[in-house]
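Lab notebook: predicted structure, single chain.

Context: the supervisor wants predicted structures on file for every construct in the current expression panel, including those that have not yet been purified. This is the next one on the list. No modifications to the sequence; it matches the entry in the shared construct table.
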Amino acid sequence: MFRVSVAGASGYAGGELLRLLLGHPHMRIGAVAAGGRAGSRVGEVHPNLPDLADRILADADPAALADADLVFLALPHGESAALTARLPADLPIVDLGADHRLASAEQWTRYYGGDHAGTWTYGLPELPGARDEVRRSRRIANPGCYATAVALALTPLLRAGLVQPRDIVVVAASGTSGAGRKATDALLASQVMGSMSAYKAGGVHQHTPEMEQTLERASGGPVTMSFTPMLAPMPRGILATCTAVASPGLDSAALIEAMHDAYVDEPFIEVLPPGSWPQTGSVLGTNAVHLQTALDVHAGRVIVVIAIDNLGKGAAGQAVQNANLLLGLPEASGLTRNGIAP
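Prediction complete. Output recorded below exactly as produced.
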């Protein structure tokens, strides 16, 4: 049984991480820390976790966190690096924040501000070669939720040369938990319920360089992408519509074959049958990915629609998947692809 610690346990991603770890057959929860809510009981912050209700959220003490086989960091962006510097260099860490995702220091400063903390192994196991890289690493940068969806939607097509990399357009709707737990007027129920809205449009969303970085690895060259995020009136989930210019001579059969070949052996990715389209409700509470693709002959574009749970495959579920690989456990341990309905 592996002992794991969690820093940032009071947020939505941290709470989902605790929920998954409670059901994990090979991990037990060690130190549980939360900065602003230190001193509170877990049950006060996450009443859905009665098995941890009386545990006290502690300060992020490096010595306590390091008394573990692995540490999860579910901290706000920009805070992981400082804590990591106080942890043993050989301690395995999965960072759910953005601090170590980007290769470019200039892009980090532009989109997040401050000094770049360096680049860790990018933990999206379904990307070509990534699974073995994660297994060989000690420090994993867990991808962003939007970035996970876009990378899985478009990587197989870019690698196969079926779409062009210069005019990629993504419109993606996320549940309110994607904005974090901090109270703002924009997240009030009276503002969100019965309404959808765009935010951070025009190329300024912080996941933009991460998405372009990952897609450039797939294409082997520069990628130009326009990304418009939307806030949807639901607690969790992401539905992303990703489109790109089709390469000359592309037909639907080649499109379907490329997706099938890329994901046929992936336990968490479901390429839906023809005529079936992804919906966020089907992946609720899971580490699953549902996707469908189509060729728009009239517009000369390929469309990929993909659904994930932003707190599952987009955050905590993927973090557990990466931890399983780091610790030599079965990759799917403690995770499910079966959703909750209705």
